[in-house]
Amino acid sequence: MKTIVTADDFGLSPGINKVIIDLLKQGNITQTSILMGSYFTEDAINLFKSECPDKPLGIHLSLTFGKKISSYKLNLLSSKDFMLRLTYPKLLFLLLNPLTRLFLLSQVEKEFEAQILKLKTYNIPINHIDSHQHVHMIPGIFKIVKKLAVKYRIENIRHTNESFFITKSVITNNSSCNISGIIKHIIISCFTFFASSPKDSYFFSILHSCKIKPGLIDYISFQNLSKKYNSVEIMVHPGLPELDLNHISLIDKREIKQALSSDRLNENEALIEISNHLLFSNSSIS
């Protein structure tokens, strides 16, 4: 079984950028996904190209974070100051509204394509596609992402096909899922149903999104997933809140609380444990 550990939110803040680069160099994560509309995207690109250009880099498409990249006027997506202004509920509302659905999808395609093209200008191969808040899994939007992946020859798209019962079977008895994780899982599972997710891979950690900590995973049970899946992706959100305290004014205000959360420090520690058991073990291919 191939274990893929992906650090999301690369580019969001200096602390997140630094810790992700360190983790890549140490082999504690397999790959990372970059946000293109952040004040700190350029910093992330420069660090990546100088420190670990041989590692897999994907694009973390966004509709609810950062500045828009497209040169088109995207009145449904962005504000007058060019910030992507939608919240997740507002995005769903516009998609469900027959008066705005087609207009929104057209603007989403323009923005996503612009984000992909911006990353390509840095001459870094795009290894995979995923997204901030998993917006790429929403029906209609997922179709656009598949189209763009084919157009730009990006082979891997994240499929968030996590099962409550399978994940429950591979965490320790004293661990539990938080309510927000369960709600998020229910919503995204509904979207995943329409995405025809592959049966030979598994996605872990919507149920514990931003809440992975040492002792969460039962590694013996986790290794048993190899009987059913060829690969398992573990999503993580590491960070260095103490470094980001000096840059609060430059971080998208919607993400400040998350960037400064001590949960990111817990994930840093958990990644050492995860890599020792899954990435550096003989039974896993990193």
Topology of this structure?
Elements: E1 2-10, H1 14-26, E2 31-34, H2 41-51, E3 57-61, H3 88-96, H4 101-120, E4 126-131, H5 141-151, E5 156-157, H6 164-169, H7 179-193, E6 201-204, H8 219-223, E7 231-236, H9 241-244, H10 256-259, H11 263-279
Parallel strand pairs: 1-2, 1-7, 2-3, 3-4, 4-5, 6-7
Oligomer: single chain
Biggest sheet, open or closed, and with what strands and sense?
A: 7 strands, parallel
Rg is 18 Å
Query: Strand pairing plus helix content: what structural class?
Result: alpha/beta
Quote the average pLDDT: 95
- Outline: globular
Number of strands: 7
CATH superfamily: Glycoside hydrolase/deacetylase
Straight-line N-to-C gap: 9 Å
Structure description:
With 286 residues, the protein is an alpha/beta fold. The chain has a single domain, classed as Glycoside hydrolase/deacetylase (TIM Barrel). It has 11 helices and 7 strands. α1 runs parallel beside α2 and α4 packs parallel to α5. The chain is globular. The N and C termini lie close together (9 Å). The C terminus is likely disordered.
